[in-house]
Design goal:
This protein has about 210 residues and is mainly α. The protein contains 5 helices and no strands. The model has no long low-confidence stretch (mean pLDDT about 80).
Length: about 210
C-alpha cells in the first residue's frame, strides 16, 4: 500500500477510477430520479384503477357499464407513457452503467494498471514478480473499497433531490387563506334535502334509485 501511494502513476490510476465512477454514478442517480418523478403520477393512476377493478363493491358497476373498456384503454395509454419516459433515458443509463462497471473499474485497474505494472517489472526491472502481484492485488482491493464507498455518495445526492422537492412543496403558499374575521357555523341541527335525483345502469330499463 505504501508503494502504491508513493508511485505517482499508481495513485493516479486509483484516483481516476474512483472519481470517474463516483461522478458517473451521480449522473445515473439523477437520471433515475427524473424517471421516478415523471412516472409517479402514472403509477398512482394505475394503482387507483387497480383498486377499482379488484374491489368487490365496484365489480358490478364495471361489468354492467362500458366504463371498463375506457379504463382499460386509459391504463394501456398510461403504460405506454411510462415506457416512453423510461426509454427516453434508458440509453444514457446503459452507457453510463457500462462506463462505471467496465471502463472506469475493470479497464483502468485490470487493464491499464496491470499493463503499467508489467512494463515496470519486465522492461524496467523496477518490481519483482511477487511485488507486481502484491501491488495489483492491493490496488484492486483499495479501488473496490473506494468504489463501494463512492456508491453511497450518489444515493445521498438522490435523497437530497427528494428533500429539496419536499422543501419546495412546503414553501408553496396556499392560494386560499383564512379570512381575517371568520364566521362561525350556525348552531343546531342541519337538514340536507335532495330532489329529482335518480340512478340507472345504462343497460337496464328503469331507475334503480
Amino acid at each position: 500500500v505504501f508503494v502504491l501511494f508513493t508511485d505517482v502513476a499508481a495513485f493516479i490510476f486509483i484516483l481516476s477510477s474512483t472519481v470517474l465512477s463516483v461522478i458517473t454514478q451521480g449522473v445515473v442517480s439523477r437520471l433515475q430520479f427524473a424517471i421516478d418523478q415523471d412516472n409517479l403520477p402514472h403509477k398512482r393512476k394505475l394503482g387507483y384503477y387497480s383498486r377499482l377493478f379488484f374491489i368487490p363493491d365496484h365489480a358490478k358497476e364495471l361489468r354492467l357499464s362500458s366504463v371498463s373498456s375506457l379504463i382499460s384503454k386509459d391504463m394501456d395509454a398510461t403504460v405506454v407513457k411510462m415506457e416512453t419516459n423510461i426509454k427516453a433515458r434508458s440509453r444514457k443509463q446503459i452507457v453510463l452503467g457500462f462506463l462505471v462497471d467496465f471502463c472506469f473499474s475493470r479497464f483502468i485497474i485490470d487493464g491499464l494498471f496491470i499493463g503499467y505494472l508489467v512494463v515496470k517489472t519486465v522492461v524496467f526491472n523496477q518490481f519483482s514478480y511477487g511485488n507486481m502481484i502484491a501491488l495489483f492485488t492491493s490496488a484492486a482491493m483499495i479501488t473496490d473499497s473506494l468504489q463501494e464507498l463512492g456508491k453511497t455518495i450518489p444515493e445521498f445526492q438522490k435523497l437530497a433531490l427528494y428533500v429539496n422537492k419536499i422543501r419546495g412543496f412546503l414553501a408553496v403558499k396556499p392560494r386560499i387563506t383564512a379570512p381575517a374575521e371568520p364566521k362561525s357555523l350556525p348552531q343546531g341541527e342541519w337538514e340536507l334535502e335532495i330532489r329529482h335525483v335518480s340512478f340507472a345502469y345504462p343497460r337496464l330499463e328503469g331507475s334503480n334509485l
